[in-house]
Amino acid sequence: MKDKIEHILHEVENFVAESKEQVEEYRIKWLSKKGQITGLFDEFKTVGPDLKKEFGQKLNELRNKAQEKINVLKEKYESLHSSSDKQIDLTIPGDPSVAIGSRHPISIVRNKITELFSRIGFTVSDGREIEDDWHNFSALNTPENHPARDMQDTFYVETPNIVLRTQTSSVQVHIMQNTKPPIRTISPGRVYRNEAISARAHCQFHQVEGLYIDKGVSFADLKQTMLYFSKEMFGADTKIRLRPSYFPFTEPSAEMDISCTLCKGEGCNVCKHTGWVEILGCGMVDPQVLENCGIDSKIYTGFAFGMGIERVTMLKYQVNDIRLYFENDIRFLKQFSSAI
Ligand code: DAH
Q: Does 147 sit behind a cis peptide bond, omega within 30 degrees of 0 on the bond before it?
């Protein structure tokens, strides 16, 4: 009996089936009612008590191995069979009932801004949303107790040094610290301010910061870049105007208006009948900011600008409530499915 067990065990171990039919053939040969292994179990009844334990174990082991081998091979042939059997009809048209999602309007506009600036050589830089006080304020000429800090109500993660960034201008600082000019980059991202939520203000929103530093960069370069952007973003007939303003990190500073996208400058509710709507802040990077970040202000000059993506989106799509961007109401989002 021992020889028989070993003989079949050897056969089981070396068995390689070539077809599903062959697997079935061997299952019958070994494990069916009249199979060899089943037969050995009958024979086992006649084994003397002193050998029962040894043969019993061997026999069980043989049966388990055979069963396992059959199972594995069966599965292999069944899965092969089913996958090769399926006929895929590549000519069937798509199922129109499957809804295609749409991009969020903020993503659409952010991508558009990124694309427009990349066409004129701007790279994209990523920043951090949790920022230290120095990068968000001090390096940008906003020392402690400076009244300019009142311009932005800040969320503190750890007082007094760690904040949720209030502006993407903080990315400028990192870039200037780590890159040798020429620098030409934009940094889109989320910013946070401790503001009461209303149709016009939110505690979180998105900005794009732009920075261009090289030898001989002038205000004319800034103006031309802004004009290019505005025409590409809002249409070729868009006009811009720059009004003197104040930001701690630029000198001179300006706020930029575009001709109203809705009434084309005629005067309407959106532009409060002025024909102009404010869109961004900009200016020449203050030499002190360049020095703060390790750039020689005697050799290099540059311009910077910052705009709110919600604001640009609002003007582009006439959405008049900033809260809609964060509620993600499907009825609102669906309206942007034709935009990309
Ligand atoms: N950081 C400013 C803000 O949040 C926007 C801004 C204004 C950015 C002028 C600039 C700039 O880079 O030059 O209001």
A: no
Structure-block tokens of residue 331: 């009825």
What residue ranges do the domains of the chain occupy?
Answer: 2-86, 105-336
Task: Write out pLDDT tens, residues 255-273.
Answer: 999 999 888 888 888 889 9
Task: Ligand 1 pocket test: pick from 205, 213, 249 the residue with the most ligand atoms within 8 Å of its Cβ.
Answer: 249
Which residues surround ligand 1 with Cβ inside 6 Å?
A: 167, 169, 209, 247, 250, 281-283, 304-306
Domain 105-336: CATH class, spelled out = alpha beta
Which 3 state secondary structure label does DSSP give 320?
Answer: coil
Give the distance, in angstroms, between the CA of residue 249 and the centroid of all CA atoms in the same chain: 30
Phi and psi based region of residue 128 (left: phi greater than 0; alpha: psi -120 to 50; beta: remaining): beta
* CA 329/CA 209 separation, integer angstroms: 28
Please tell me what DSSP assigns to residue 151: G
Query: Quick check: bond before 96 cis, omega within 30?
Result: no
User: What is residue 228's DSSP assignment?
Assistant: H
Q: Could you give the 3-state DSSP secondary structure of residue 325?
A: helix
Residue 277 β-bridge partners: 258
Cα 274 to ligand 1 centre (Å): 23
In this structure, are residues 144 and 184 in contact, taking their beta carbons and an 8 Å threshold? no
pLDDT tens digits, one per residue of 284-318: 999 999 999 999 999 999 999 999 999 999 999 98
Question: What token pair was written down for 209?
Answer: 């910061």
